[in-house]
Batch of 3 targets.
Target 1
Amino acid sequence: MKFFRMGLVLILAVFVFFSVNSVSANGSKPGLANLMMIPLDDRPANLYFPEKVGKSAGVNVINPPEEMIGYYNTPGNSEEVGQWVVENSDQADGFVISTSMLAYGGLIASRTGVKSLEEAMENIQNIKELKEKHPDKPVYVYDTIQRLAVTAISEESREYYDLIREWAILYDKVHNLGMEEDRERLEELEHIIPESVLNDYLEARERNHEVNKQLIDWAEKGYIDYLVLAQDDANPYGLHRAEREILSDKVKSDGLENKVAIFPGADEVDVVLVSRFASQFYRKSSSFYVEYGGIDGADWVAPLEDTPFDENVAKHIESAGGVMTEDEDGADIHLLLNTPSEETSRREADINGMIDRVNEWVAEDNQVAIGDVLSVNRADEPFVKGLANQVDLTKIRAYSGWNTAGNALGITVGHAAAREAFLSQKSGFGVPYYKETAEAHYEFLLHRYAMDQGYKNVVKPEADEFITEIGANPWQLDDDYDTVNQFVRDSLKNQTEMWYKQYFKGKEVYLGSRGKKDFHTTIGNLERLQVELPWPRTFETELEPDLEF
């Protein structure tokens, strides 16, 4: 084993020498390894997040050209994306592939019945071609189990969002579980929802389910090294429940529990699989010691999810290349999860207890990751403000409060495990390279606090109020885009600069170690700050800070 580790170090040292003198695809900066990715869509969660997490671990994430992957409700070009990944595959050391993009043109397109089953199956043949061409390179694939609702991109679709979601839940209750008391409302909904809308929804579900099953078959045959089937926004009841049970039974009957994971989530999976690649590349499986700040994960099903949260935690850690441990002292990463309090009266005490726990771990030089999973699509404001005022935020290895509990969990775990895998290598890297990866790491940390608290709890509510005042359409900004975008840009820049000045500027931070020597530096200026609404709505925004060390 000692010989193998020494060999890996020598390989990495040689790789560093050659990679810094090479040019990677799309003009990206080179890394120790090139990971080619077909993202879920063009949102920051599926481009910026995995790119920064990869760079923090020395992994260069290569995405298709922007014009191939679509924009908002305009699907990407599946055929061109598939051709791109095969033609450029020699540049890659591994692959992360969203079949939502490869088969249909992205997540939104996957929720419509526009692409036929035959077209979808033809588009994903590139996965087999990749593995046949590069049998020794890891191919990680993920798909979604379709959520209950359609995509809300207009007032009309918002109406169907609620109606179809309710219909899918009641259909499962009445037809699959015999809850006859819900039949009257189910039949009422079937008269309200246009037949064409319902048929499109059902055709998409049926097609996607067949693709899910095909991917499991390919995992069994070795075309896919690891497969994630992520359950998009769900509920304990609904059409997805029977689909998931069929897929789970298939995984078990094929003996694929170690190659296929099924869990609630979607947007975080790019980050999770980047982490899995980094963990494999560095031969480091990070161990996680898990604590819950409120109720135990076994006793909580998070909003928009359908399984006990502790099961979701275990599956995300495994999928990211990590393992769980009960050895608090020996764990690589101490993961704190901000779950609901058992009683409202206990909330303040639970927040104080979590902050004390973080300070205790930090004082003992433990690596701490925080999944702020309490609230959907935003940080828990009292918790994160208390954390910022009482803890050195640069000592936290990873944090996320973005979107659903599964999303926040996966981003936190993926970032922490990827960075840990890189830092576990104690030789082979020069200080300039440690500095480059550290810049990406701390930029992403700053992004997370400014985004999940500053944007979601401060700027977005103000922007939505501003949209109402000017009479704009929140689902499609169109001619009001520039005005709203400028409002968001100005407000979020102020929030990000506040987070930088108060909690990051001038802090001495760890870069890495070579042998027994540790390297540190100081966070300098916030040199640039890119803020832009990527889609004509305020649900998400680009936020890309550049720090100078």
Target 2
Amino acid sequence: MTTHDLGNQPGAAALQSWLLDRLAALLERPVSEIDPDQGFTELGVSSRLAVTLSGELEDHLDRDLSPTLLWEQSSVSRLARFLTEGEPQRTPGETGPAGHGQTKQAVQTGQTTPAGPNPGSPHEPIAVVGVGLRLPGGIDSPDAFWRLLRDGVDAVTEVPRERWDADALYHPEAATPGRSVSKWGSFLDRIDAFDASFFDISPREADAIDPQQRLLLEVAWEAFERAGMPAESLRGSRTGVMVGISNDDYGRWQAADPAAGGPYTNTGSAWSIAANRISYFFDLLGPSLAVDTACSSSLVAVHLAVQSLRSGESDTVLAGASNLVLSPVVGVNFSASGAVSPTGRCHTFDSRADGMVRGEGVGAVVLRRLSDALRDGQPVLAVIRGSAVNQDGRTNGLMAPGPAAQTAVVRQAWSNAGVSAAEIGLVEAHGTGTPLGDPIEIGALKEAFGPSSAAGTCALGAVKSNLGHLEAAAGLAGLVKAVLCVQHGEIPGNLHFDRLNPRIDLTGSPFFVPTGTSAWPLPGGSRIAGVSSFGFGGTNAHVVVEQAPPRTGPGSSPADPTWSCSRRAVTRPCGNWRAVRPNCWTPGSRQPICPSPPRATAPTWRTGSAWSATAPRNWRAGSRRSDAVNCRPGPYAAGPPASPPPSCGASPARVANGTAWAANSSRDQRRSQPRSTCSNR
């Protein structure tokens, strides 16, 4: 009997029930703990158990089955559907639980999406529908980022002691071997904080995973939720993931001691897995890749995302970026080349420009074709009109910028976007604050714009003056700033600017350097901005961003408030009740709909030396701590509860809905106990 010859086979619901009973017996766990949508591997099904279950299933159905069937149909629900409905193995044009070739949102609204490629126009605007952020200064949302920009906050600090002893490495003379002229940077808080169980990762594997990957999972979740796309709706969809990443401090630390390696070390440090892990966790079938073009990595990733959407290769793309500074080594090398600011600030376009300040950041934006986003009633924050990428070629040196290529990439992006220089009200510049790099960039922009008598109509923005240089994540930070500027119709001022660099001449150009928050400089018409990002190996990128179009007619507001939250978020109403905030999606609200994933805390690690191989213990996942869970609240439709809900910090701690286990509990421990509201899918 063939797989598709159904005969008198049981229905999907009956077969799923049978599979759950047998799986629970084989795993020695209550049936209530077996999630039919969770992967067999995640449930703990070994190859031996898979063979056993497959044999029992053959006997139950009285039919021959492929020995690899459990891996091809990787969950109970998928296997039951396949065996009873004859569902063919999924292709990237199909979306699993939501139906063949349809997103869950489309099923809910009665709209359909073709199962095959759905190319849009080669120039169709691309909507930015969701953003997730972790930036210096405690920034974890677009609103918080906008406040930082408008308030003129400088997020640069001295290097935290838990990273390394910057005083011991400091030397005021440049190029001193093994020393740095800078002891400043911009850093994220609690990079060790990670709820491994939330993402179905064991504590042992979490320790081996680069914090960049862990943070990317968090911001991806948040970006999708802000876009009104809960995790369940994404499963099996043609969603791509493209991540800009170039720093490998954690991997170098792990590689320094081969004896400390393990089965998760390679995947924990590989750049490709930074993207692939997101695709795996959300079950996304679009292209998944990491991009390393140094400082332009994330903007190149955005460009590739736009291309993938316009070609029909993807229906949704998560474009992300990550940069963490876990070791002083790269900074010491930059110091030797004279690229680092000895004064600890990015004085972009200023006469005091003396180099960059290294910084950290992790972020992601969810992109969709504008027509699809409007059809599905999603929040459109801004649109990407066009983008371009090119290379300097042979310049005066490998790291020397190419003015002609910078001019060309801007013009090419304008051509792709169908805009002219006169429409641009903001250029968010690469602007590292180097004495020659800034003048070269402005000269290239002047050449692209051409002579202009409309002085003061185009601002030169520099988010690096607030955050430092986020390297691989710099372009994404600039893009999100531009999105916020066109959305709000304001341009925050640059910091650390007093007097124009004497090598920069703005005469005959539309440019000005904003020193305080100002209104959009071009009244009337649509607000349009450009964002530049240049890699130190010569790969240049430019993206054109425009304010979102006004909504009119059908789809003028988010279509369905039942989008709300994924089951995983809804069933996690624990944590600090004082942090409860509105988390329910309502039509027209444009507000985040779900809380962020909970984050664990771990003790700080200090080392008396300048830097040692043991210092990165502080960057391991906080999931080892038995008292480390700090769950954020789930959505409360009626507002905060009258009294604080029980803490999920104890391990175990009795709560109203079961036993709460801290993130460090092993999978076997968690399986042997009732699942808490903190770990329920």
Target 3
Amino acid sequence: MINYKKLTVALICGTILTFPIAGCGLTAQTTENTAATTQQGITLTSSQSVADTSGLTLEFDEEDTVTSYDSTTASYVTLSQNGSTVKGSGVTADGSTVTITQAGTYVLSGTFSDGSIVINTEDKATVRIILNGVDISSSTTAPFIVQSAKKVIVTLADNTVNKFTDSARSTTESEDYSAAFYSKADLVLNGSGTLNINAGYRNGIKSTDDLKVVSGTYQITAAEDGVIGKDLLGIADGNFTIKSGTDGMKSTDDKDTTKGNIIIAGGTFKIEAASDGIQAENILDIQNGTFDITTGNGSAAVEMKSGDSGAMGGMGTMGVPGQNGSAGTSASSASISSDTDSVSMKALKASNAIYICGGTITLDTEDDGIHSNDSITIESGNISIRSGDDGVHADSSLTVNGGAITVGYCYEGLEAKDIVINNGDITISAEDDGINASDGSSTMQTGGFGMGGQNQSSSNSSALTINGGNLYVEADGDGLDSNGSITVNGGTTIVCGPTSSGDTAVDFDGECVLNGGTLMAFGSNGMVETPTSASNGSCIVAGFTSQQANTAFSITDSNGSTVLSYTPEKAYAAAVCYSSDLKSGQTYTVTAGSTSQSVTVNSSVTTSGISSMGGGAQGGGKMGSGQPGGMQSGNGTGGDASGNAGGGMSLPDGTTDGQGNAPQMPDGTQGEVPGMPGGTTGSGQMGGQPGGNAGGNGGMNAQNSSSNGI
């Protein structure tokens, strides 16, 4: 049965119907005939065809899409500061105030230099306002006020520009209409005209119930928020240009779990917000649209200083054979320089969940690009982010099922407790970690080296799982980082990782299991961690002399055929490579620039050119870049968590003590930290090597050279 009462922008994609609409690829028209005129509804369109999992629907009553009116029954108001004229019933003009007291259709035109439109009716029917070229300003109250109504539909007449302006004024106890266009009832906006809002007092457009937009052009400048739909902000289409003193668009109900949502099925959005761009108290669901959002002063306003994140955490004591090393200290989290650290300046933000099913999204943010206090699901879309903090951050879970995501500048690229990448094209350039699975704690622990015994794990339940897609990560910190486990089941992952020896291309505190796909991860050889196991192929972990950026790397088989090859864009001295084409029992030639080594794969994970030892996880902070005379200021501080051993971690070949001797491994004793030649200790100290003080607090002196590990 066709339901002519509702037009539903149902966010369950793949089916195209009319009345109701089901599908992200949706079209619909409504026609309602009367004796006087034909009412023609607008077309709701969206090219999105990817399944949405939010469970939300954006519903429109049939009347919401109607833009024409019956000219024989409508009332007309011509605004004038010298006295407005009224033709019809249900409306009165008294000085600078026009009051509508009955349901019906009202056509407004003209200019009020200091006045307002007030809608106040107890009727159980809809009030329809046709804005046919108005210019209304007020210095004492909101120029458009809905005090009481069942629902108000505002139509922007074709080829008209309609302006509403309020001025800065003092809040009074008896009246605080906090927006230039203010409604205490459900508010629907449609039509093809333009609505210009200049909100000098506080907000631009606000409904304390639902605010739905079918179409129209909106140019909004607001001292505070641009657009607010307290219970719901739903947008089918429209062209929005917003410049706001706080948030661009928001839904604010935090009492009812079914409210506080934002649903955007389409439209064009240009938002410059001093705080958040689009913020939902509950769920933000983006189906389609074109978004260009800048928050704060953009990503360029944030100075990410080398070494700000502190030194690598201290090493624990050396364990005797058959025993585990003791706990080490942990490094502090990153410090990012910004003048407005206490203000949230995220582009897309939700307290509970964010769903992105399509659209073209360009974000330049002083804070996170996309942020949820719980979960984020990306199904599709073309997303480009430059962020002063994280590109995409979810406190709980981040799932990427498709789309193209480019994080061109950020502190960390993707971050969540649990990250699952099933598909998509992802490119990340990060000042610290590229992809970070973390439970939200600011530190990671460092364990002692265990010799000959079972390595303990300092892992938690965080997990990074890559099932498919194409990933490219360029990171100054860890490339792939998990405070728990890393599992690669498919896809192609390329990592151009750190040049500092305190970070590594693949970093994990629990297990790193390779089951499928292709992994090529390049970085320094100072803290190489070897994957725990590999199946359906083999893994080669190779170290070699330092190679300059843009030096070709390859693995060839015994016939000279290339199995894997890549030219890293950064300097590197180690590579972690996995492929189903690497076979156990076969011998391969690993070539980096002009150096080559022969590697026979004799286990699922084979190392070559690396002195591998079972080891604990690294300190969570990014190590300061060593300069002559000491490290740059990193000020890494000691942590408190037990630093148990994680996956295999390595010391660079040729590590010596202060006299040029290999560091000794005392028989269960807790020896002093071996010194390095020459330098003095910088403020961003690197943790001690095996044999450090109990608790791992020994500092290692910086050399009089760059301590970049390559």
